[in-house]
Amino acid sequence: MSVDFSLKSKVAIVTGCSAGIGNGIAKGLAEAGAEIYGVSSRGEFAEIKEAVEARGRRFEGRKANLMTVGPIESIINDCITKFGRVDILVNNAGIIRREDAINFSEKDWDDVMNINLKTVFFFSQRVAKEFIKQGSGKIINIASMLSYQGGIQVPSYCASKSGVKGITMELANEWAKYNINVNAIAPGYIATNITAPLSDDAERSADILARIPAGRWGTPEDVAGVAVFLASSASDYVNGFTVACDGGWLAR
Questions:
Q1: Across the strands, what pairs with 88?
Q2: 88-91 and 180-187 as β-strands: parallel, antiparallel, unpaired?
Q3: Are 80 and 92 contacting, i.e. CB atoms less than 8 angstroms apart?
Q4: Alpha-carbon torsion angle 215, 220, 224, 227, nearest 10
Q5: Is 157 a catalytic residue?
Q6: What are 194-247's pLDDT values in tens digits?
Q7: Which one of 148, 157, 178, 237 is the catalytic residue?
Q8: Pairing relationship of beta strands 88-91 and 11-15 according to DSSP bridges
Q9: What is the pLDDT of residues 122-153, one digit of tens each?
Q10: What are the C-alpha distances in Å from 158 to residues 155, 161, 175?
Q11: CATH code of the region 11-193+220-247
Q12: Can you tell me the distance from the alpha carbon of 131 to that of 134, in angstroms, rounded to the nearest whole number?
């Protein structure tokens, strides 16, 4: 039996690739053989471009604000123009706003829901049209352990990530017949710029670590391993599932 984790000759779009989880996933996919089309609102591509090319893969970057769905069409078209195809979409770009639910603003609600959920759906919809023409494709959404839990002071983030889990299942139901795999990853506490306010708080970080069976914060590389599996043909019969990558947090 041959189990194939290789992504050689595959082209992956990774949103939010300049830092954090998206950065780790882009490097992991490149290590497995994929060419990378990276999208970032900041447009800071020097580090990730160098890392991808050091792995012998090609990198193209696109600065775009995914708070709206406006850039999606041109991103897909540009990727196909430059690489000839697209095989993998990683919907990683997202934001979080922290405030007590009683004081949470409409703007913070809308901003988070727009990029974390609305853009995820419409990016998936657009790339699926290419995948249907090609006969296959992989969509990997980045959910959260808050897709399973409530959390505190992050009402729109929790709602959006619960929605990511739901839309992942719905799209898998509709698109599996086209050989399109739609899955998600639910990271736990991963050490990134987004979680820095928590990891930098000694008391809060200690409380978090006390509940993680693995005894450490996760890294973007931990998430990258799951992404490589879901992007490869090794996961061809995995569809509609949200995989926890949390050091055992949800099992506790």
A1: 12, 138
A2: unpaired
A3: no
A4: 90
A5: yes
A6: 788 888 888 989 999 999 999 999 999 999 999 999 999 999 999 999 999 999
A7: 157
A8: parallel
A9: 999 999 999 999 999 999 999 999 999 999 99
A10: 5, 5, 26
A11: 3.40.50.720
A12: 5
